Amino acid sequence: MVLVRPELLELEPSTNGVGGDNSLTGEVITHTFLGSVTRLKILGREAELIADVPTARVDSLPVGSPVVARVPSVGTRLLSLSEEPASDGPDPGDR
């Protein structure tokens, strides 16, 4: 699982449905006005994303439009989804 802050995703309209390296393609399914930023929910085949874009730019990314979301190499975190929980120390039952 990759964690990216919503304001770090770089969105642009998609003209050919191809994203390239470090990117995902999808469709804008909602807008939520938050003042100076608008939160967009993007649904793609690979993932569901939340992105915050400046409200002044939101007209170029209307609901229903195909977009490319570029994931920056800086500011992302990779999480392991292993089946076993991480241990913070000895098990209390081992006494």
Layout: helices, strands, pairs:
Layout lengths: L1 E3 L5 E4 L9 E11 L3 E7 L4 E7 L11 E5 L5 E3 L17
Antiparallel strand pairs: 1-7, 2-6, 3-4, 3-6, 4-5
Descriptive account of the structure:
The chain is mostly beta strands and 95 residues long. The protein has one domain: OB fold (Dihydrolipoamide Acetyltransferase, E2P) (Beta Barrel). It is 0% helix and 42% strand. It contains no helices and seven strands. The strands form two sheets. The protein has a five-stranded antiparallel beta sheet with strand order 2-6-3-4-5, with no helix packed on it. β4 and β5 form a beta hairpin. The radius of gyration is 18 Å and the shape is globular. The protein starts with a strand and ends in a 17-residue tail after the last strand. The mean pLDDT is 83.
Low-confidence stretches: none
CATH class: Mainly Beta
CATH topology term: OB fold (Dihydrolipoamide Acetyltransferase, E2P)
**Overall pLDDT metric:** 83
Encode the helix/strand succession as letters. Answer: EEEEEEE
Per DSSP E runs of 2 or more residues, the count of β-strands stands at 7
Radius of gyration: 18 Å
Q: In the CATH classification, which architecture applies?
A: Beta Barrel
CATH superfamily membership, which one?
Answer: RNA polymerase II/Efflux pump adaptor protein, barrel-sandwich hybrid domain
**How many individual helices?**
0
Strand order of the largest sheet: 2-6-3-4-5
Number of domains: 1
Quaternary structure of the protein: single chain
Q: In angstroms, what separates the terminal alpha carbons? A: 35 Å
Query: What is the overall silhouette?
Result: globular
Percentage of residues in DSSP E strands: 35-45%
Q: What summary fits the major beta sheet?
A: 5 strands, antiparallel
Helix content: under 10%
